[in-house]
Amino acid sequence: MSKDSHRRKKVQICSTSPGYPVYCPKCNSTNVLIFYDPRFTPRLQSRWDDLIDEKRILLENRWEKIKDENRWGKLEKGSEKPNWICKDCYDGGIVVEQPIDKKISDEFKKCEKEFTEKSEPLYWDKCGEKVTLKQIHGESNIGDNSLALIAVTRQQCNTDNFAKYREYIKNTLAKNTLYYGLWYNTDNGKVEYDILYSIENNLQEIQKHLNLHNQINNGVTQKMALIIDKDGSWKIQSNESYSQTTSNSLGGI
User: Fold this and answer.
1) In what order do the strands lie in the sheet with 179-185?
2) Which of 119, 124, 120, 121 is nearest to 107 (CA)?
3) Long-range contacts: 151-154, Cβ < 8 Å, 24+?
4) Model pTM greater than 0.85?
5) How far is CA 149 from CA 55, 61, 189, 196, in A?
6) What are the tens digits of pLDDT across the range 194-238?
């Protein structure tokens, strides 16, 4: 090789496998590779890895959306996004974050259309993936004991305040696990959007927690908790103070 020849430096590209099907928006193939440009800020990669693990991503291939994202000389530091390519149709683009409230709202609206007073309650985990009551019990690691599922939301029919409730569960209640749920309120004939957490099935603790969230819900207390057995069967535990507390809080209504 002559002295004027240029050596080509090999550049390593870091790719990741989500571990679940990701569909190409053009051909619907699942043969999709997600990868990070070598110029990608390392500290951001772990954040995107978490979003991918939580299934909170969308594959974007529209030119008007991606045309500025690979102009690395002009990108604002910290705004980088991963790339993707389909190995079947060779389409590609960028990976964008799917906000959790948008994901939950879309899931709720799909199920809400046929949700009636005869419907079983439905639940999703913190990543917006549907879960059964049996799975919720299994994730609690309490063996054969039953647990109680308690909502912090009250008479909520949208996701507008979900961020406030998540912060309340994390910072005030010191709970790391939460669930989203659809529940049909037979009192007003409306479908309620819930954010819930679990505690041990102890009557005294349940009654305490049912009356713990009045201030965040404009004085309206919780009406009930859901007691879940290991096989996924459930029953309602009523709030013994519900009528009196609600009457006092709402001026006798």
Assistant:
1) 130-131, 122-124, 179-185, 190-200, 147-151, 224-228, 234-238
2) 124
3) 151/181, 151/183, 151/194, 151/195, 151/196, 151/222, 152/195, 152/196, 152/197, 152/213, 152/216, 152/217, 153/192, 153/193, 153/194, 153/195, 153/196, 153/217, 154/213, 154/217, 154/220, 154/221, 154/222
4) no
5) 24, 41, 22, 6
6) 999 999 999 999 999 999 998 888 888 899 999 999 999 999 999
Rounded to whole angstroms, how far apart are CA atoms 82 and 42? 12
Cα 204 from Cα 192, distance rounded (Å): 26
- Say what the alpha-carbon torsion angle 192, 196, 199, 204 is, to the nearest 10 degrees: -40
* Residue 59 backbone phi and psi in degrees, to 5: -95, 120
pLDDT digit string, tens, across residues 38-87: 888 888 899 999 999 988 999 999 888 887 776 766 777 778 899 999 99
Q: Are 140 and 133 in contact (CB under 8 A)?
A: no
The answer to whether 173 and 181 have CB atoms below 8 angstroms apart is no
Other CB atoms within 10 A of residue 12 CB: 6
